[in-house]
Amino acid sequence: MFTLSYLLFTLGVLNFKGASETQGKVSLSDAPTEVSDYNGSLYATCEMKPSTTLPLGQPQIYGQVLFKQVYPAGRMQIIVNLRGFPTRESERAIHIHQFGDLSKGCSAAGPHFNPLGQNHANHPGDLGNFGSSRGRVRVSVTAKATLFGTESVLGRSVVLHERKDDMGKGGDEESLRSGNAGQRIACCVIGVSSSSLWENTAESSWEDSAEE
């Protein structure tokens, strides 16, 4: 018959073993240096600019797409802060694409970032559709993508499209690849940043940003 002391000893060993394994998997030493600098979070920014091959009739969009994620497995938070949209504007799609290559406008950014080979709209970089107000998009979202590990989106690109994403429900092959979102009108490369841009943007009001 097990004694209470033996049971407590066994539970203690299991807890120690579990804690040791967990600590080994999420060691802070494996994190980017900036995680220690910013209280366990990593920040990134993507400075959006019009494609150098911008199609005629499309608006010139500028701004930032900002990222924040708590190491190692927090949900990635995103602030989309863009300007230059027409006053009367339907929704447009924003996706994370595979390459951070803007050498041929946004076309060199490759397909959607899709490390698991899934159909759209199950790619980690499928951010959805965004509507503008007073010529701006200013919204916070969460995403399935990550800034850490082998599937990190760092060094990849964010692309703004000319049309609304059909979210894979268009009934054709292109819908399952890209959501039939159309041409790429603006893009940027995701890079590590300090926390200041995120903090300043998160703290500013809509009226503040509308006056920039």
Structure overview:
It is a single chain. With 212 residues, this protein is α+β, with helices and mostly antiparallel strands. The protein has five helices and ten strands. Strands 1, 2, 3, 4, 6, 7, 8, 9 and 10 form a nine-stranded antiparallel β-sheet that branches. Strand 2 and strand 3 (76-83) form a beta hairpin. The longest helix has 22 residues, at 4-25. The radius of gyration is 21 Å and the shape is globular. The protein starts with a helix and ends with a helix. The model is unreliable at 1-26 and 206-212 (pLDDT under 50).
Which helices and strands occur, and which strands form pairs?
Layout lengths: L3 H22 L7 H5 L3 E10 L11 E9 L5 E8 L8 E6 L5 E4 L19 E5 L5 E8 L13 E5 L11 H6 L5 E6 L1 E3 L2 H8 L2 H5 L2
Antiparallel strand pairs: 1-2, 1-9, 1-10, 2-3, 3-7, 4-6, 4-8, 8-9
**Going by CATH, what is the homologous superfamily?**
Superoxide dismutase, copper/zinc binding domain
**Number of separate domains:** 1
How far the N terminus sits from the C terminus, by CA atoms, comes to 74 Å
Principal-axis shape: globular
Overall radius of gyration: 21 Å
Order of helices and strands: HHEEEEEEEEHEEHH
The unreliable regions are 1-26, 206-212
List how many beta strands DSSP finds. 10
Number of helices: 5
What is the averaged pLDDT score? Answer: 86
Strand content: 25-35%
